[in-house]
């Protein structure tokens, strides 16, 4: 992710914010190891998708998260 913060840091900031903590976060990444996935989920990601993924898979994840609200 370009900039000074990593995606993990941004996710953690969202989940730590009183105003944003209920925001659903889907991490879209090229990092596919088990440790990377666990780090994303530990940072607060609700889902973790590794590139490449299909548009259909992304839509399924979005719909699943919408149902859980």
From TrEMBL:
Q: Which Gene3D superfamilies match?
A: 3.40.50.2300
Q: Which residues form the Response regulatory domain?
A: 1-66
- SUPFAM superfamilies per the record? CheY-like (SSF52172)
Q: Which InterPro entries match?
A: Bact_response_regulator (IPR050595), CheY-like_superfamily (IPR011006), Sig_transdc_resp-reg_receiver (IPR001789)
Q: Which residues form a coiled coil?
A: none
Q: Which UniProt keywords apply?
A: Phosphoprotein
Give the record's GO biological process terms.
phosphorelay signal transduction system
* Name of protein: Phosphate regulon transcriptional regulatory protein PhoB
